[in-house]
Amino acid sequence: MIKNSKPVLFLSFAVCFIATLALPAEETTLKRKWVSTPPPKIEKGTATIAVLPDTEYYAWKYPELFYAQTGWIAEEALRRNIVYTVHLGDITQHNNHEQWTVARKSFAMLDGKVPYALVPGNDDYDNLENDDWEKLRQSSNIHRYFNPKVISKWKTFGGFYQKDRLENTYHLFRMHDRDWMILCLEMGPRDKIIHWANKILKEKKNHRTIVVTHAYLFRNNKRYDHRNGKERASPHPWGNDGEELWQKLIKKHANIMIVMSGHVATGGIGYRKDLGDHGNVVHQMMCDYQKKKMGGLAYMRLLEFLPDGKTVQVRTYSPYRKKLQISHLEDFKFVLKEGKGK
Length: 342
Known about the structure:
Layout: E1 13-18, E2 21-26, E3 33-35, E4 47-52, H1 56-60, H2 63-76, E5 82-87, H3 97-108, E6 116-117, H4 133-137, H5 142-145, H6 148-151, E7 157-160, E8 169-175, E9 178-184, H7 191-203, E10 208-212, H8 242-248, E11 256-261, E12 268-275, E13 281-288, E14 300-305, E15 311-318, E16 323-326, E17 332-335
């Protein structure tokens, strides 16, 4: 939903983009099937990361869907070896007390069971007034409902950019006897945030890394790029868009394996992969189901890191409908490849 000058994208199609090849797949004609079954049992030794795309309508109108997602994650944490939950931003629709209360109640189901990493989306801030972007940046209520002092004590919490604020953070954990990091960046990261992120990535160069930011991929699975002309709901007015983030940060680091984003509404699913400067393959994916009925029907992503330490199985599941959603953009595998440089 567009609120004043805060952009939200309405996208009519999704595209599968692999390397430099783009294959169009319109949301209305995407070949899908639904299977009324839980996700298949994981292979022994698999580790799972649960991914929640834009939940704004759940926080606003359909809290039972939000609770269904995190409740299922909590119940399946041991069976599926869920090591982390990641939210892609737009946790709320209006950045108000009622919606943040729903979000906090939902994530409380994970407390003490599964650690989580959050990024704010454009709807997690107030409206822009008088072109005061600094005031806008400070307006998110995320840190008022998710206590930074409590989160900072988690064994997996790495650090903040700004003390006691959750817009930019990093998280450290082990998976398959390897060190991993989830690096969370604000909406349209500013240059000073990119400078900080570059520093963290160099310090943690032996950690395989997942970068999470709300707006990164755009239509045709091209990265947001303001040089292409007007792009609806671009993160560029906030700071750096997807292509700028790729050039200034993502491609420079051999340890970046995955980038995840949401934000793109209708048809908001996709995937691309590109080589970083050091020969690492960077898998970039976007999902956002908010234009489905009830704001998304509680569809979420599961990234299953298989025991071989390199293969990742992506699944799309709704614990509310108890159905898998299967298409080439929502049920697929990819292979991790690290770079040689550090």
